[in-house]
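agent> Task received from the user: take the single chain below, predict its 3D structure, and emit structure tokens. No templates, no multimer pairing.
agent> Plan: (1) validate residues, (2) run structure prediction, (3) serialize to tokens, (4) report one or two observations.
agent> Step 1 OK, no nonstandard residues flagged.
tool_call: predict_structure(input=
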Amino acid sequence: MSSLPQIINYKINATAFHPRVYDGAVKIVHVLKQHNHQAFFVGGCVRDVLIGLRPKEIDIATGATPEEIKNLFKKVIMVGERFGVCIIHVDGNDYHVSTFREDMDYKDGRHPSKVAFSTPQQDADRRDFTINALFWEPVDSNLYDYVGGLDDLHSGIIRAVGDPLKRFKEDRLRILRCARFAAHLNYAIDSETYDSILKIDDPVKGVSKERIRDELTKSLITKTPSIAFQFLYQVNVLQKIIPELCALKGVEQPEKYHPEGDVWTHTMIALDIAAKELKDLGSRWVLMWAILLHDIGKPATMTLPKDEEDRIRFNGHNVEGEKLARQILEGLKFPKKETDDICALIREHMRYGRSQEMRKGRLKVLMEKEGELFQDHIDLNYFDIKASHGDLSNWEYLNKEYTELKEKNALPKALVDGQLLIELGYKPSPRFSIIIEAAREAQFEGAFSDKDGAIEFVKEFVSSLKE
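)
tool_result: status=success, residues=467
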């Protein structure tokens, strides 16, 4: 690692950045420089471009104060004026722009109690990791490295800036970020940085549940999610956040169905396969959470073999898993819809694992009811199998049925609904949903195709309920 600041002429082609954001960011830098203010692209966008990734966002650091920034641009939103942070709106895009600053007096394990506007060197010194403290000036094409980040980037090392113990005591969120960057970049963690994390007794002090949730979600959509979760387990942080997940360690499974090993190993393999194979991974985070938690109920439901002919069983682990997952997700302040979707995936993953045994009409009813979420059910089944015994015959059947259903572009209109039941003289009751669902299943299976047939089915079905 270099001991002195480096200033290197480093040309980066505009196409290395996302075209939607590059031009506006350069305009902001030009305006600031025209008014005698230093301005740089900074942080993750520089890091990613240097290793061949295309960033979707560009953050800017400058010597201009918030007041000066407000006077230079038409559309400015102050999101943290005390910390010198604002959003500038240019050409339909928002850019986070921050004034060079030095952070001081961290008291809550998360936020500085005061800041002082400063120099680029001091701004680099207050950042979390060296690879995130690189500055690039797009007008002159100069790369500024004040903390040895370029060497660490080339060596594939995640190293805290300055004193690592101080960095993590200042802001515990940096521990979760360290895990995420290791998974995102597949980089090794510097030994002193790693050892410092082990010395933190309260690794999530001051970090809100929402920020923990967001960091874990970002870790799930990295190249190799298992790296993040293995690391968090090793440094005794995951135990503080999701102890139920740690309980998967050492829970043996029947070798016939799970030759890969224990429940933890199975879960980590499934995550990495999904991260590798899913397209547009960033939009599939609900599925990734479902994969992470799909077997969370196994430790509580494990029963050992009764005899040589028996095997380890986890009867009802999907039901127990849904209950535990809901507690975890609600504790992390997930929105209700996403919580319900993740829990539905966990609850039903065993049902769809036996889809070939299901009546086709019943399967179509479930496809219709789940809507777009059904693709996640199919994908969860796929990654669950790929990470275990590898027999994809059930998934192939499930995927074929769903593909055929979608290719028809429209499902036949339901012939039995609440209005028809009322017309037939039945009083609204909880039985309505049972009748309607049974009728829909029968309609899918061709039991009737018109209103007269529907009425006949309803009468026969209601009669059977009375018996």
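agent> Step 4: summary for the user.
Residues 277-407 form one domain.
agent> Done.
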